[in-house]
Every structure is written in C-alpha cells, then in structure tokens.
Amino acid sequence: LFELPTLMHNDLNTTDLKPVVDDLAVKRQQNSPDLHYTQVTAFPPSLYLSHNNLTGPISGQVGNLKKLLNLDLSYNNLIGRIPTTLASGTLLESLDLSVNHLTGSIPVSLSRLTFLSAFNVSFNELVGM
After folding, report:
1. CA distance 72 to 129
2. Residue bearing the bigger pLDDT, 19 or 46
3. What is the arithmetic mean of pLDDT over 12-22?
4. Is 80 left (phi over 0), alpha (psi -120 to 50) or beta?
5. How far is residue 71 CA from its own chain's centroid?
6. Which of 7, 18, 60, 96 could form a disulfide with 85 if both were Cys (CB 3.0 to 4.6 A apart)?
C-alpha cells in the first residue's frame, strides 16, 4: 500500500482500473458536509481506511508518508503496538486508530506531532495513563 505510485479505483461496472481524477468526495467529520475536489492536486493528503477488515500490525512504513495530514485506520482488526514511526509524519493533524486490537502503550514519540488536533485510540487494548 505504501509503495503505490498512483491511487487507483475499481468501477464495479467495468474491469478497467483508472486513476482517480474525476470527482473526489471526502467527508471530514460526521456532521460536516462532503468536500468535493475535481483535481488530484487539490486532494488533501489523507488516508481513510476505516471499516476495511484490515488485519495484522500497522506497518512502520506509514512514517514514510511525510505529507499525510489525516490517517484513519479505525474499525479494523489491527494488532500489535502503535509504530513510533508515526511521529515521522510531522504534518499529521488527525489520527484515528480506534476500535482495533492494538496493545502496549501510546508511543511518547507521538508528542512530536505538533499539528495533531484529533487523536483517537479508544477501544483498543492499550495500557498506561
């Protein structure tokens, strides 16, 4: 996932894969209206993968996504510790890892995320204060 050169989507009516460049919709929060973008250059650097039944640990390579603003991996079946490399994406504004099976403690390195305004790790198996 972290090595894909371009984002692709699959239209279930065809078998062709094509780059997403038409009309992109992003929902920021539950009670916010959808935001529509018509150019890929205007698309906010976000990765929303909630409710995808993802399994296994969160890859440490997620820290390589330096310009990522929003990361939502909630409502999956992710296990293991929260990678300390998440702090490498210093522009991160929103991080949602809730409703998984993450263990251990919240890495102190996440305190370097000075732009982080939304952080949710509820409903995991984390320990500590």
Report:
1. 23
2. 46
3. 42
4. left
5. 2
6. 60
**∠ CA 109-45-4, rounded to 5°:** 95
Residue 91 is encoded by which pair of tokens?
């522009």
Please state, in angstroms and rounded to a whole number, the distance separating the CA atoms of residues 121 and 101: 10
Instruction: In whole angstroms, give the CA distance from residue 4 to residue 12.
Output: 21
Is pLDDT above 50 for 54?
A: yes
pTM, to two decimals:
0.69
DSSP secondary structure of 12-42: TTSS-EEES-S-EEEE-STTSPEEEESSGGG
CA distance to 30, 47, 60, per residue, from 80 (Å): 28, 20, 11
Q: Write the pLDDT tens digit of every residue in 73-90.
A: 999 999 999 999 999 978
Q: What is the pLDDT of residue 17?
A: 40
Yes or no: say if 87 and 106 are a contact pair by the CB < 8 Å rule: no
The count of residues in the chain is 129
